[in-house]
TrEMBL record:
Record's keyword terms, sorted: Hydrolase
Coiled-coil boundaries: none
Species this protein is from: Candidatus Roizmanbacteria bacterium RIFCSPLOWO2_01_FULL_37_12
Alphabetical GO biological process terms: proteolysis
SUPFAM superfamilies (UniProt xref): Acid proteases
InterPro entries registered for this protein in UniProt: Aspartic_peptidase_AS (IPR001969), Peptidase_A2_cat (IPR001995), Peptidase_aspartic_dom_sf (IPR021109)
Single annotated GO MF: aspartic-type endopeptidase activity
Name of the protein this chain belongs to: Peptidase A2 domain-containing protein
Record bears the keyword Hydrolase: yes
Location of the Peptidase A2 domain: 31-108
Amino acid sequence: MTSYPYQKDSRGNLYPIILFQVEFKKTIAKTSALIDSGASISIFREDVAKQLGLVIDQGTQTLLGGVGGRIKGYVHNLELKIAGKNIIAPVVFSYEYSVSFNLLGRSGIFENFKITFDEKNLVVKLQ
């Protein structure tokens, strides 16, 4: 089991944000993301695609809807190294995604781990 203490966002709020690696064509980027049980798929900012040399619109186009409205994005299956485990998961990149952090959604992530949100102690545990 790997425990991650909650991290502060730019406003000082604490969230279950973890550090991990993303690989695309042998290029590795270290990044972080909020573990979001309300997101059906992972969504990463454009800067991660740039670090990886990934051309966003070469993925499969999709439309995502949520609290903030609809955005157009492109799905790429990427290798992620999280809590010492290598997994392949779909990740959406969007030029329209302007939130301050990446999101790790359920697809490809949650079925690979038992995830415990320990709000009392401000840690998230991946097993």
